[in-house]
Structure formats: structure tokens, C-alpha cells
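User: Study the shape:
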Amino acid sequence: MKNATFRSTTVAVDERYSLQPVSIRHAGACFASCQDPDIHRWLPLPRPYTRAFAEAWCGEMAEGFRLAGLGIHFAICEEDSMVGCISFKNVRWKEDVVEVGYWLDASARGQGIATRAVSALVNVAFSEGFQRVEMRIAEGNAPSIAVAERAGFVLEGVLRMGGVIHGGRVNLRMYSLLMSDVFH
């Protein structure tokens, strides 16, 4: 079995963007971004999303998540400014399977940033020995579906009523990317 925690290191996405482990310095940008109704449409984040919650999440909860072996949260940064968040979650260490989830600030959407960030995190997963990376995306979330497909993920099927958002239960599209899909 590989390590049961992820290293807290910065990951390069490209010459402009990096993935930095979430820390208290990201709390202001996280709070501002999470006021966006589109983020709340697809993710069951606390409502209202308060500054105090952003500070607790960025300052303590994200690192606790990592130390418990549950995954890791990264700030998607343009230089040092947070424009989104991307995570490894639902880690199944013994099975070499991990899920990727993300959100972007409204100002960062439609520029290919999410696709590049997902691809960078997939490379980390495979370099850490994971054999399968999953994305579960609510039906109707066309931008995230497009990100998964542009990043090379394959649609496997639908998890009927497999997710919960503020609007209730939703079907989730199950996407996967295997190490053997990338490295033949």
C-alpha cells in the first residue's frame, strides 16, 4: 500500500498557473468565489458561505482532510491569486483509485484553466501510483462535463440519484481515466 496521505507540495499547471495546497492565505478569495450562485448550484457547500467558514476551511479543515488521508485540496492559482479549488477526494488507497473535483471563480471560467488543472492533477495521481481517476459530475453541469471529456475521461455511465446538491438528489455521470489510457 502506498502512503496514506498526499504530500503538501505545489504542482505546476503551466507557465501561469499552479496548484498550491489550500492554506489560510486563500481564505479571502475562497470566501469571495463561494458567493457565486453557480458554485452553489452544483456543490452542496454551506449556505450562507461565511468568511468564518472560509477561514476555518482554508486554515484548518483542508489540512486536517489531508492528514487524515482523505485527500488534498489545492488552490488553483494564477501566480499567487486563487481562482479556484481542485481536490483529490474519495481516495481508495488499497484499490489505487481517487476522485477529482473542482470549482472555479466566475472570472476564470471558459479559459481552459479547469481542463489544464484537472490534467495536472491526473498526472500527480498516476505518478503516485493510482491506476484509476474518477470524476462524478451532476447531469446538467455541461461545463464540467466538457472539462472531463477534454481531459480525456471516458463516460462509464450514470449513477442514478448518486449525488446531493442544494436542489435535492441528482444523477451523476461517472467518468474515469485509467493509467493505461494515458501510458500505453
User: Anything to note?
Assistant: Residues 137 and 144 are 7 Å apart (CA to CA). The helical segments are 27-33, 37-42, 51-67, 113-127, 142-150, 179-182.
